[in-house]
Amino acid sequence: MTLMAILDRVADATAFDKVIEPARRAVLGALRPQAVKDFLHGTWLGHPLHPVLVHVPVGAWVSAGLLDLIPPLRPAATVLIGAGVAGAVPASLTGAADWSAADVGVRRLGALHAAANTAALGLYVGSLVARSRGRGALGRGLAYAGLSVASGSAAIGGHMSYALSTAVSHSATAARALTGEWIDLGPLDDLPEGRPVLRTGKGRSVAVPLAAVRRGARVDVFVAACAHLSGPLDEGTVEDVRGAQCLVCPRHGSAFDLDTGQPRRGPSANAQEKLEVRMEAGRVMARPPSRNR
Ligand code: FES
Asked: Are residues 150 and 178 in the same domain?
């Protein structure tokens, strides 16, 4: 069995759900208010913050592993290990925020990822203590053990991102299925004011659900699958969020600016795919932006 098949088995295992769910609720409770969660998700950045921050501990610890091979440079390795330990704290907070809003399979793997990262952090803290007491060989041994555990944990994190699609934009994936042609969404007069309705875009292999929102003579059209985890935005609401008119997802409450598609409230850190719109003889026409054609 391959490593990835083993990780898929972990994602399907229900054995630890009784522990994981209370832990998730505890994280949700600790990361209040919503603005704190949004900061950690990276909603303000328009990009998940966790992958931006993890390069600090990973980079520092890998570099320390190389410097430890060269005796005169071992004091520098100790500095890098300390930097990695400090950098692991904000990285773990952003990971915890994303984990608390993830699907169940990702939460199971994420619990393993967090346990492994905590073990790696403990080994590196032990390494620092050993080095401070003049026990350099033990310190190096603990650091290499920490690097091994952190590397295995990185493989788990990669599987969560690339195989289970956490933190990616689900709306960008859906948008890729659209053809580049203009889509006739019907008469403007058929659209209700100020609430999303479902329309369908022609896809290369399957039809793509779209969410259209009318505000007077203006219509904003989005891919209906929410960027966070594919929630149905056509069943969402239009609300004022942080000073902007937003389309709000009914699943976890992500709010996307109607004008730009940018997230105004998480958990989504990614923008919602928005289509170009023009009117033609009283009918609403839409097509994906050029990057998706
Ligand atoms: S699916 Fe989670 S906020 Fe939309």
From this structure: no
